[in-house]
């Protein structure tokens, strides 16, 4: 290294890391394990240990005229201030102040946010396409004009008969999300997820090169004190260091993993039980709302049921998240991981699995199980479980995703910024009461930082987890909610500045650490990308009416056999998608209190319901029609073709996009070439110098090179 100034050669983050490295290994007392700062923190000798911020982040003077007073002030003005939300992040400054690991997080978050722009634009286009084609949609027209079609009640007893035209609004809203552009958007998002990950690898390689992380390897990690205390009696030789270290037997490790896996399975069962509770709530509440005295709620009982169920589900999700954190912590400690990185990876995987299942289980139920019972028609026992609106179940899925996504992001943003702000305000208030305003300003920097909030115990885990779950919402069910990327984009624009403000002003300065990539999160992102292809295929084939409409247009509609599928080919689709039910076939316990005389002046004999079944007077009453089997076969064929096509495109893109940009590869090869040349020249110079010295001393050698 060519060092011109020893005081500025290492940046502040690197100096903090060096000091921490020394403090972790210094011996503070005689004894085998009396080493390191962490042990002093764990036994209560010290309350906290943290690097200091470089002074205040505010200044009386303008940064434009007087410059920045310190790096913290510069970061606040150029990065954490809300007025610079539209500017690129100064990643080199972030890395210099907070270290490479936090710098990589913000680099990934900025890259993810930037990649959301095309996804949000296409999703908004799909939504606007639905808006512009709304008046030309034949299906919505037929639903709105079907004043003579009486639908069967959607629940037992208290739900009334209703005209199909009463669901006109819901049919139009469904068309906004379920239209001809939905399939294209699902394919686009599957490809987008792959492009995002592949180009992130290229971006990460450039950052790693610029930050001198290409050849950096993590040093051999120290054993966790908990592992050392548990298995100190049994030791074996470390093949790398050559020193004896505690050893965990294979049988002990397997037994602990089995217990941990059983705990994970049990908690997933708790989630399923919570979802089943929401299902029971829906069944009971839809009847209650249908008999409500307020006409507004009575006439919109389905929407009221779905809306309240989603809100209750959100509250359950937030409560279970608190429980899951404690369970994941207990199970991870039970496994006794050897090093801190193993502990972190194990805890991350459990927390992601718990929260992903917790957040998406009810969404999976609505998408793939609500209203899909092969033995369900109005008189069957399972009819109470099949109460999708006459316009379909997609509107329930859209409400579920929209409400959960908005509430979750709002709550996370409040907890990330609002909670530290309130705690710091309360701390400052107590200090003003105790020392007065003048006394508080005279505090040394370490005491000012001590009064800030510490970074959470799991480091960047919460930040990554929030974004990864959002990525799942943005990709997994995007075919049912094309506006999800737009909501994610708007949230992330706020999230970047919110996290920056939190790191610079509200938290103690975290210890700088190095990292080459985002770790286990990249594998989780790849898994979500694969899952999104499968779920979107099923959403289009099973949840939406895309396949039934396609089958009707090509096989049963006015254009059958002509190879056309325009709006004119959809004439009569609504009537063909509804089956006839004999009102007298209702069972006693599910028979509605109303006889439907308000529609025609006499009791109804027949009502309609969404299914492909034979009429009640056919040889096999309520048996499946041929159209049902055609639709089912088309759905299965679409799932297979869609998945194979998209996976082929994903693998092709992954193959075609190299992990390293060409210019970076050339720079690395050029650097390697120059290093080799310098080594050759240095060696040649050394040999020539030795030759001259030998000649001076009168020594000669035959066949001497060069």
UniProtKB/TrEMBL annotation:
It is found in: Cell membrane; Membrane. InterPro entries: Anoct_dimer, Anoctamin, Anoctamin_TM. The chain crosses the membrane at residues 105-131, 181-200, 257-283, 303-324, 352-371, 468-490, 518-542. Residues 1-91 form the Anoctamin dimerisation domain. This is Anoctamin. It holds the Pfam family Anoct_dimer. The gene is Ano4. One of its GO terms (molecular function) is intracellularly calcium-gated chloride channel activity. It is a multi-pass membrane protein. It comes from Vidua macroura. Residues 94-671 form the Anoctamin transmembrane domain. GO terms for cellular component: plasma membrane. Keywords: Cell membrane, Coiled coil, Glycoprotein, Membrane, Transmembrane, Transmembrane helix. It comes from the Eukaryota. Belongs to the anoctamin family. Residues 670-704 form a coiled coil.
